[in-house]
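Because discrete structure vocabularies remain unfamiliar, it helps to consider an illustrative case, giving the amino acid sequence and backbone structure tokens:
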Amino acid sequence: IETSGPLKLYRNYNSSGFIEFDDSRNLWRYVLSGTDRGKPEVKSIIYSKDTFPIIEKFIDDKGVASLKIDQILDSGSIDPFSVLIGISKNINQNNNCNIDFSVMDGKRRYKLSVVEVNNTPKDRNKLENEKTLYNCKINFEYNSVSGQKKENKQWPFDGRSKNIDIWFSKGIGFMPLKITLNTPVGKITGRLRN
């Protein structure tokens, strides 16, 4: 993920990441590394469906420490990449976007409620040459417990909108094709690149 165009002048951001699965132990590692405004960001966190995450490495661009793990509150939480995988699987299995997640990414805890904007095939938006698209709206609800400061003013959600629209395409294995979110500097649009 990287910013480009005029947005890059406002927020120079560049990151890459991956998920590494260990099916034998029923866990996975989320790794994200990059730069935000020229400062390094690194996250390496182990997750499991059965227990709480373990933070292996956490370097924030602002120098803040990671959240302290709450063994009860964080149990079963997932990483941001797994949200996209979870939505994709839900569309494939249930033919809709509607699903909820608890996320803990080392810096924030939040609940995500995903709903389909147009829930009938006839009404689904068409994008480029795609015939079957699912427009999923992700709504954020931050959890301000365990010393986490209030996230109401955190970029990119400085305003009233705390949601992201993502279009998943059946034609490419239910992968996300487009993403949009409103920010204080206007609408940000991201598109899948080959």
Q: What stands out?
A: The longest helix spans residues 80-94. The CA atoms of residues 178 and 191 lie 4 Å apart.
